[in-house]
Design goal:
CATH superfamily of the largest domain: minor pseudopilin epsh domain
Largest sheet: 5 strands, antiparallel
Radius of gyration: 46 Å
Number of helices: 6
């Protein structure tokens, strides 16, 4: 009897547009035929069509939100979690990024960091000489790769009171001094002395550092301006000024006049 009534309802109504959340008589009849649910209280199944009376549309419009999920179980997808494929894809991307980033990270000091530290040392000693108004000498032991400053006080050498200079500073195990060019000439071993004066002037020097891969870093100290220049190529010393032969007689004449 229930299926017969639903068949009447399905045949009596044309497809029509209803507000969202409502079911027409045809959908109600289909649900009844499939046996998905029992008609809840208040649902009217009109049998007047069997007696010859025309059914009314309003008698078969009902709201049944409780059964919407049963009628369309795959209509929506839960967004509360991730699928296994999504998790695997994210892990794959993370592994790829780590493979690119980790080789670029080195726990050892490189030439750039050692060079910046050396420049910082030069600037600190320049300021120390100007602050104390005493000459500061920087000892550089090229063979051991260590360097340390002392303050010249008359005939005595004093260690600066700052804890930074309490012990000699040492280069990284992978970096060494290749050569240092000072006013006395070029040195590739032994000890080199650099002087910092109370006026802010620094002895001219050009030092070259190399690592185990033969990469080079040059640090040049300008004597007049005190500027420090860094380069990844060798810095050759400037050529000495030469007096042209035609000028020398004029200089001799000037000296004779004096």
């Amino acid at each position: 009897m229930l299926k017969k009534s639903a068949s009447f309802v399905l045949a009596s109504f044309r497809p029509s547009t209803y507000p969202r959340g409502y079911a027409s008589g045809s959908s109600l009849a289909a649900a009844l035929l499939n046996g998905l649910f029992e008609p809840p209280a208040g649902v009217i199944c009109d049998h007047s069509s069997a007696a010859g009376n025309a059914p009314t549309r309003s008698a078969h419009i009902v709201r049944f939100p409780r059964y919407a999920s049963r009628l369309t179980p795959y209509a929506s997808r839960s967004s509360s979690g991730f699928t296994i494929i999504e998790i695997i894809l994210v892990l794959f991307l993370l592994v790829g990024l780590l493979g690119i980033i980790l080789p670029r990270i080195s726990l050892e000091e490189n030439l750039g960091s050692v060079g910046r530290r050396m420049v910082g040392t030069v600037r600190s000693l320049q300021s120390l000489a100007m602050l104390t108004q005493k000459t500061v000498r920087l000892y550089v032991d090229m063979d051991r790769g260590v360097y340390w400053p002392v303050i010249l006080d008359g005939n005595q050498e004093k260690i600066p009171t700052d804890a930074t200079w309490a012990t000699p500073l040492k280069l990284s195990e992978t970096i060494r001094f290749s050569d240092i060019l000072v006013a006395q000439g070029k040195k590739e071993s032994g000890r080199v002395d650099l002087f910092f004066y109370p006026t802010g002037r620094i002895d001219p020097a050009t030092m070259h550092l190399v690592d185990t891969k033969n990469n080079i870093l040059a640090i040049a100290i300008e004597p007049v301006t005190g500027a420090i220049r860094m380069s990844d190529e060798r810095i050759e010393p400037p050529r000495p000024l030469t007096i042209p032969d035609r000028v020398r007689p004029l200089l001799k004449m000037a000296e004779a006049v004096r």
